[in-house]
Write a structure and sequence with these properties.
This protein is an alpha+beta fold. It contains four helices and six strands. It has a single domain, classed as Mago nashi (Mago nashi protein, 2-Layer Sandwich), CATH 3.30.1560. A hairpin with a 5-residue loop joins strand 1 and strand 2. The relative contact order is 0.19.
Length: 160
Amino acid sequence: MHFSILIILIFIPGCNTLQDHNSEVMPEDFYFSLTYGTYGKQKIDTFHDIVVKDLVEDGTIEAKISLTLDEKQAIYDEMMKIGVMNELELEKEEGCETEPPSISQWYIQMNGETKSFTYMSFCDYTEDALALVKLEDYIHKVVSSKEEYRDLPESNGYYE
């Protein structure tokens, strides 16, 4: 009797760990390129491990920055949560322009498929567009926390 309880106690924590781990296996061919920000001047390209930072008045600067497998897995997990490879509703019927414009252009490859889409800043975001903006922010935070990015020059000036 005590032996069965011991086996159950040892086995249960292992099961809980498996249930808490909800990420899918990232495909080997998972890459993305995201051009984003004011005038679409910033870029994160995992195909070529390139990051472009907008320095505003000083132009842009390009750096060789790679994401780790764990970082790519986390980004892949976030993409799967919002169904990025599915049909996305990005624009509502009524439109408005913002100045300066913020442009987002995605190119994603996984499982032998590719998908690309572009959208600009909105006054009223759809649920899908809002999820993508949050994903952009998440990816930017991952990249901007890397030492190679922090070593780049600071932006000079600002957009009005």
